[in-house]
Write a structure and sequence with these properties.
Thermophilic metalloprotease-like; 12 helices; 32% helix; alpha+beta
């Protein structure tokens, strides 16, 4: 029996998140594991009067490429990819891995080379998003691999996903619109602010946000959502931070990450596990050594770390920074082939100060919005 939540999910992604309009050119990326959702998305794009293009891959595409291709092949960007990035109106990506660890034994240099080669593609994508020429959505379809990472049964994980994305099953759009209103008050408060200071266990980090803009992440681009984020001034980040959860990139888990910054740049990076991979990603290009994003997670419906960044970065009471590419709409100028989100749990023994005013303590805002 088909899960009726899939229909609601697809309708939300197309009609609210992507806001697909008649004659939009829409590309839908995914693999066959997500067939029920991909089919529903295709139908709703057609119902909207738009033009859907399905980009269906094998679950191990990246593994096949990185293990078998020459460096020249790994760096090659197809003309169709360039055309979609430059001309399409909507980009929808559905993650549904068969195996989340299939790149664990791939040479990290190959992963870094692939990321660096796609820097120009990412730049085009982010520029068009900032100019509101391109709308995008990233979501997941529950699979056994994701459920196993989250230490749940598949049925429990399905409930977790749909409860996070469809908190009000009868009318989920109402929920996300109300979240937008709440978060916009936070975003508005940050207008004109200059400095952020984060203090937590093994963490003392300062940065400038002068002239930068906070964005309201309200379900339009990610589903689920629930964060406010900005791009700090590139050379302003100073201090050190220890991340509470493993940093996961291309299926590689790096545990116990600690970073030290001077004049915005990572000058020291250590990890309890997989430190070599961390170093290789940081050194994949110049921009990977700087912070492209600072964010505060606000989604109280997500409280458990599941090893899926789409959910984990939204955990209410956490912060995260991203090494690499920043979002131009925030004012970030940082460019890179990577964007690696790393999470610090600030729900205990932590404070966030803005222009010498305490605004956040132990995972909660202490000022009213």
């Amino acid at each position: 029996m088909k899960d009726q939540r899939i229909e609601k999910y697809a309708e939300l992604l197309i009609n609210y998140c992507a806001a697909v309009k008649p004659e939009d050119k829409v590309i839908i990326h995914g693999n066959f594991m997500a067939e029920p959702l991909l089919a529903a998305l295709y139908k709703y794009v057609l119902n909207a009067g738009a033009y859907p293009l399905l980009d269906i891959s094998l679950p191990n595409n990246d593994e096949l490429l990185l293990n078998n291709a020459s460096d020249k092949q790994i760096q090659y960007i197809h003309e169709t990819e360039k055309y979609v990035a430059e001309k399409y109106d909507v980009d929808i990506s559905i993650e549904s891995p068969l195996n989340t660890k299939n790149l664990t034994n791939v040479n990290p240099n190959k992963i870094a080379l692939h990321a660096k080669a796609r820097k120009s593609l990412r730049k085009t994508f982010m520029h068009r998003v900032a100019q509101e020429e391109l709308r995008w959505v990233y979501a997941i379809f529950p699979t056994n691999a994701l459920a196993q990472d989250a230490a749940m049964s598949l049925s429990d994980y399905e409930d977790f996903v749909y409860n996070a994305c469809l908190p009000n099953l009868e009318n989920p759009v109402t929920y996300w619109k109300e979240l937008h209103i709440r978060q916009q008050k936070m975003v508005d408060w940050f207008v004109g602010k200059k400095k952020i200071h984060v203090v937590a266990k093994d963490t003392d980090l300062k940065m400038s946000i002068e002239g930068r803009t906070f964005s309201n992440s309200n379900g339009r681009d990610n589903m689920p959502d629930g964060e406010i984020f900005t791009g700090p001034v590139e050379n302003s980040v100073e201090g050190h931070i220890k991340f509470s959860y493993p940093g996961i990139y291309k299926g590689n888990e790096v545990e116990g990450i600690k970073l030290w910054f001077e004049q915005g740049k990572v000058v020291k990076a250590t990890a309890d596990k997989n430190e070599a991979f961390l170093q290789q990603m940081i050194n994949s290009d110049e921009g990977a050594q700087y912070v492209g994003e600072f964010a505060i997670g606000t989604n109280e419906n997500i409280a458990k770390f599941t090893k899926s960044i789409l959910f984990d970065e939204k955990i209410g009471g956490t912060i995260h920074i991203a090494l690499g590419a920043g979002y131009p709409e925030t004012g970030s100028k940082n460019e890179s082939g990577i964007h690696w989100d790393l999470i610090c749990d600030t729900r205990n023994q932590s404070e966030i100060w803005v222009d010498n005013e305490l605004i956040f303590k132990d995972g909660e805002f202490v000022i009213e919005f």
